[in-house]
Specification:
The protein is an alpha+beta fold and 177 residues long. Helix content is 22%, strand content 28%. A hairpin with a 7-residue loop joins strand 8 and strand 9.
Length: 177
């Protein structure tokens, strides 16, 4: 799965949401739903609120690259009926994870944002059929990578390179949240 990581602040996360929607992307939170219908994030404020209070994971879909609707299924392990989106079935889609914090042993002590997609997805009607992700999702992903890299500086820490928001100061002993 092609994926990249960035260390960006909330203002850049808001800008990322705005950029995604400006290029025909829609964000769906990866949460448990009360009904068999997912919701779309409508604003950058709602986006940050979901990250803070509900989930750090999102599905990015677009009419420009999505071939099949995502599948939402009842969770058979929970007594109260709840529903969830099935990973890697339908799509394709782009995964977005925006973490709230960091582990104490992290090299970069700042919340991380991960972006990626799967090279294949399963057919929503027949799980024995695997589809190859189309070039349009790769183009969309590349636009997001270019956008995020444009908001970041490439910093070297302990011999490795990291994309860190231009508005975040880091050093070997970074202890920022």
């Amino acid at each position: 799965m092609p994926d990249t990581s960035y260390y960006i602040n909330d203002q850049s996360r808001k800008s990322l949401f705005d950029y995604i929607t400006s290029i025909n992307g829609k964000l769906i939170p990866d949460i448990h739903y009360d009904e068999a219908e997912f919701v779309f994030i409508e604003s950058s404020e709602q986006f940050l609120d979901f990250i803070k209070n509900n989930t750090v994971r999102f599905f990015i879909i677009s009419k420009d690259f999505s071939e099949q609707e995502l599948v939402i299924k009842k969770n058979r392990f929970i007594e109260k009926p709840t529903y969830h989106i099935v990973q890697r079935v339908g799509g394709p889609y782009i995964d977005l994870a925006l973490y709230r914090g960091f582990a104490q042993h992290s090299t970069i002590k700042y919340k991380r944002t991960d972006l990626g997609y799967y090279p294949k997805f399963l057919d929503r009607e027949d799980l024995s059929i695997e589809h190859i992700t189309n070039n349009n999702v790769k183009i969309f992903y590349s636009k997001l990578v270019k956008f995020l890299k444009g908001r970041c500086d490439l910093k070297q820490v302990n011999g490795k390179k990291y994309y860190v928001d231009k508005d975040i100061e880091i050093n070997q002993n970074l202890n920022t949240h």
